[in-house]
Amino acid sequence: MSSSPLLANLIEALRCLPGVGGKSAQRMAFHLLERDRERGLKLADALREAMQRIGHCGRCRNFSEEPLCTICAGSSRDRQLLCVVESPVDLAAIEQATGYRGQYFVLHGRLSPLDGLGPEELGLPQLAQRLGEGEVEELIIATNPTVEGEATAHYLAQLARAGGVRPTRLAHGVPLGGELEFVDRGTLAHAFGGRQLLE
Amino acid sequence: MSSSPLLANLIEALRCLPGVGGKSAQRMAFHLLERDRERGLKLADALREAMQRIGHCGRCRNFSEEPLCTICAGSSRDRQLLCVVESPVDLAAIEQATGYRGQYFVLHGRLSPLDGLGPEELGLPQLAQRLGEGEVEELIIATNPTVEGEATAHYLAQLARAGGVRPTRLAHGVPLGGELEFVDRGTLAHAFGGRQLLE
């Protein structure tokens, strides 16, 4: 139906973005063409650069275009704390929400033998080596509270103990601002069992 | 906070898309980097090509990378019907919703002297010339039913009559599937006044 094959092509290409369907893609394309061609071109450059040049940090496996990411390369972060996350999104969430000043290790997945994700794929030999170096004192395990995330946490805790490192896990419980009525049973049972003394 | 300046740059650039804030931009960037770099690169190419090469059709002023858009260049559309719309989005909506087989003229705006949009800016001399050629028999005025859109419609109707062309306007009324209770007063009054004989 389009009067322009390039426009149809752009609308189709925009649908690779998560949460963007045909209607939004069309709106985005028209918006850029009508009002913001310059920023559209900047976006094209940013996309190309990012897709081609961003690799992984050799130390923490997070996204980075340098051999070491800025967190690993910098000297300001506490090297005795190491936080393990499943994905870079989780790392970003922790950076934005907490005042954590330690370092990270990104698994890019969770143990899931059926999907072909074993210790090798998650970089666990590399993690074990780092734990064995003696610098890390606490391994903060921040995998997701799913079945596979918990299994991975269990495995990571064993790895930590083998390297003489204290493993800790993010606290589970009732979310702030939540209402007990709407909290799922598992979480409520966990929060109830893990109740703490008010001081 | 980002471990990668290129990633931060991409997230910022994605915010030029309408309806995309910081959180969605981050989700999009991570999604492309983790799962879909190839389509990310395709999007970069599609964006660059579209921003640089899409201009306007010399006849209908719609977006086109050729001197004439596919609708104007093709021979399959009825040249006696000409539909005037404010923007290419409106054209796309009509193409998708109706079985209209005539041609179009895109104003890229509406008469709005305060914004510096007069007849010249909307290409009305070009439209008047086309109406004077004698090929067009009906000018379907599909500007938006806003104050400025109505004023523009009025002007266009005069232009059509001056060229000996019959001007028509899209019907106003109660939307299909709407409930009278929730229809705004102006629309309801219009629909009531314009009631039609059931046959």
From TrEMBL, chains A, B:
UniProt xrefs under HAMAP family: RecR
Domain Toprim, first and last residues per copy: 80-175
The UniProt record lists the keyword Plastid: no
InterPro entries in the record: DNA_Rcmb_RecR (IPR000093), Rcmb_RecR (IPR023627), Rcmb_RecR_Znf (IPR015967), TOPRIM_dom (IPR006171), TOPRIM_RecR (IPR034137)
Zn finger residue spans: C4-type: 57-72
Signal peptide: none
NCBIfam families assigned: recR
Transmembrane spans: none
Known role: May play a role in DNA repair. It seems to be involved in an RecBC-independent recombinational process of DNA repair. It may act with RecF and RecO.
Keywords: DNA damage, DNA recombination, DNA repair, Metal-binding, Zinc, Zinc-finger
The family this protein is said to belong to: Belongs to the RecR family.
Top-level taxon: Bacteria
Record-linked PANTHER family: RECOMBINATION PROTEIN RECR
Protein name: Recombination protein RecR
